[in-house]
Structure formats: C-alpha cells, structure tokens
TrEMBL record:
It is an enzyme of class 3 (hydrolase). Keywords: Hydrolase, Magnesium, Metal-binding, Nuclease, Toxin, Toxin-antitoxin system. The gene is vapC. This is Ribonuclease VapC. The lineage of its organism: Bacteria, Pseudomonadati, Pseudomonadota, Gammaproteobacteria, Alteromonadales. Toxic component of a toxin-antitoxin (TA) system. An RNase. It comes from the Bacteria. GO terms for molecular function: hydrolase activity; magnesium ion binding; RNA nuclease activity; toxin activity. InterPro entries: PIN-like_dom_sf (IPR029060), PIN_dom (IPR002716), Type_II_TA_system_RNase (IPR050556), VapC_family (IPR022907). SUPFAM superfamilies: PIN domain-like. It holds the Pfam family PIN. Belongs to the PINc/VapC protein family.
Amino acid sequence: MNLRYLLDTNICIYIMKNRPMHLAPIFAQHARELCISSITVMELEYGVACSQQQVSNAEKLAGFLSRLTILDFDSAAAEHAARIRAHLRQCGTPIGAYDALIAGHARSLGLTVVTNDVREFERVPGLMFENWLQQPPQSQLNEPIPAYR
C-alpha cells in the first residue's frame, strides 16, 4: 500500500455528493493512494448523526469509507498536532482543533492533505496540501517545520 493523500472532511463531502463532477475521475485515479484520518471519520459520522436523513446518509458514508484506508490517530500525530496548534497560536494565527489534528496526522506520516480549506492549512509549517477543487489541482509545500524546543 502506497498511501499519499489524506482527505480532509470537506473534500470527502464533495466526493460523496459527486460535486463538482471533475472530482470523481481524480478520486478514481488516486484510489489506491487515498486515506482518511479517524478524526475525519468522527466528523463525518457526526454529520450523519445530526442530519435529517440519517439512514440514507449513513449508507452513503459506509459505501464511501469502504473504499478508503482509515488511519488511526496515534501519539506521533498528537505530538505534531499539539506543536502545530501551539506554533500558530504563538504566531497570532490560531487554527481550529480538528484542522490541527488532521494537519498533525498528515505531517506525522508525510502525507499530502487534500482540502478545499486552503486558508487553514497553508499556515502549517512543513505540511503538503492540494486543493482538488481547483482546475488543475495544485500541490503546495509550506515552509520547513520550525525547530521546537
């Protein structure tokens, strides 16, 4: 298994809704390289639990998740997430807790985050990310990870 891309929650929702249409072929092209964090699974499950169409949305989510590798959030990811969140807070540009967790998970494994939430992730040192909603999708690597004490 050669995992390369960690899908952010917003991209998962776009893919499940099949909008925009150009995402489906990109998803298919990279199918064996895709994974999601258990943090993202929680966010998606929460969305289903709060929806008015829980049964149909749960079925859609189950079908979607069956095609992906789900990565458990571990202590290395937690350390990266904590450092990311502390660094951005010290810089005066705080990041949301879930985005910090996803960024930390991806960075700890050297994965590229696929997201439409570029404004949050572009501030994370050492994080690679792509926005597949742009045509053509563009990759970006942020500045190196600052030294931590």
